[in-house]
Amino acid sequence: MNKIKKLKKIRIHHEGTHILLIGALLLALINGIFYWGLECKIPFYITLLFSLVIYGLMVNFFRCPIRIFKGNTEKIVVAPADGRVVVIEEVNEHEYFHDKRLMISIFMGITNVHANWYPVDGVVKQVTHQNGRFMKAWLPKASTENERATIIIETPEGHTVMARQIAGAVARRIVTYAEPNEDCYIDEHMGFIKFGSRVDVYLPLGTEVCVKMGQCTTGNETVIAKLK
Description:
Elements: H1 2-8, E1 10-12, H2 17-37, H3 44-61, E2 63-65, E3 76-78, E4 83-93, E5 99-107, E6 115-117, E7 122-130, H4 142-145, E8 148-154, E9 160-166, E10 173-176, E11 183-184, E12 189-194, E13 198-203, E14 208-209, E15 216-217, E16 223-226
Antiparallel strand pairs: 1-2, 3-16, 4-5, 4-15, 5-13, 6-12, 7-8, 7-11, 8-9, 9-13, 10-12, 14-16
Helix pairs in contact: 2-3
């Protein structure tokens, strides 16, 4: 019964609908060619198995579990993505704040959910997109040199929080749903990074950190920090 409930809470993200449809047609065509059109020494069941594995990975990329944060969201910062904490440090942020901020970065691996959630409740003040490189997302320079989208959020308590979606070596498209002057809430999708890669959250100095380096996070569930 619990397994059925979990399955009902998992769906395919709409960003992957066309890709999965085209992928299924291409794989079906390739398998049809191998089965009917080519004399190949490779057994057909191996080609079919390989295709199923590839398609399974594609479905895994675009799965979109429905999650509701359990608890009071006041002054709470939740993980904007599934993944692993790769950075917790004070940094000089030069694009918006122009001062020191606490940065927490979450790297999304190929097996993680690639949907992104808002890390805090508040109002979206600014949304920008910068073109850039496609270096490996876990490298320190990725935050400032890779293609990225930046969302500035002002919380009800007056804190300003920045969330930055960063493309990686494989990811080639960042989708951002945030719009300036709109209310945003924990539990809502902030965007999606196709086939990657990393989300940085910039917080005021003095924010209480609730995660450790290397810790795995669950988007919209793991509390990564508490604002003053």
